Amino acid sequence: MARVQVSHVQTGDSIIIAVRDNGPGVPPEKLQQLTTPFFRGDTARTAATGAGLGLAIVKKALQRIGGELTLSNASDSGLIAHIRLKRAA
Questions:
Q1: Following CA atoms 83, 32, 5, 25 in sequence, which dihedral angle do they give, to the nearest 10 degrees?
Q2: What is the number of structural domains in the chain?
Q3: Neighbours of 81 (CB within 10 A)
Q4: What pLDDT score does 45 carry?
Q5: Are 58 and 50 within 8 A, CB to CB?
Q6: Closest CA to 16 of 60, 51, 67
Q7: Burial of 49 (C-beta count, 10 Å sphere; 0-12/13-18/19+)
Q8: Would you tell me how many other CB atoms lie within 10 Å of the CB of residue 39?
Q9: Rg of the chain (C-alpha set)
Q10: Using an 8 Å Cβ cutoff, are 28 and 81 in contact?
Q11: Cα–Cα distance, 71 to 23 (Å, whole number)
């Protein structure tokens, strides 16, 4: 069963939203490729039906509003997406 944890923290003029899954994570050499349009990891190619556009769209949309998306592996397992948004004035 897939589980996702969502949390947030305010820092300076930004809010950082963290979205974490409980999967095995991603090989470190492939982390940067996850936001490349049409990229699908080895597991995704066999188990998912998507086109490999989701994270690329999220990254581009965030950039257009002055936000940022970063991806990393959790130390104990799982992938974490950090979404940084500027706080409204």
A1: -170
A2: 1
A3: 20
A4: 43
A5: no
A6: 67
A7: exposed
A8: 15
A9: 14
A10: no
A11: 14
Taking only the tens place, the pLDDT of each residue in 39-85 is 776 654 455 667 778 899 999 999 999 999 999 999 988 999 999 99
Q: Considering only CA atoms, which of 51, 25, 49, 47 is closest in space to residue 39?
A: 51
Range of the domain at 57: 4-86
CA 63 to CA 51: how far, in whole Å? 21
**pLDDT tens digits, residue range 11-30?**
999 999 999 998 888 888 88
Query: HSE on the CB side for 67, CA within 13 Å?
Result: 20
**What is the DSSP code string of 17-64?**
EEEEE-S----GGGGGGGGSTT---HHHHHH----S-HHHHHHHHHHH
pTM equals 0.81
Which tokens in the block code for residue 66? 């002055």
The CATH number for 78's domain is 3.30.565.10
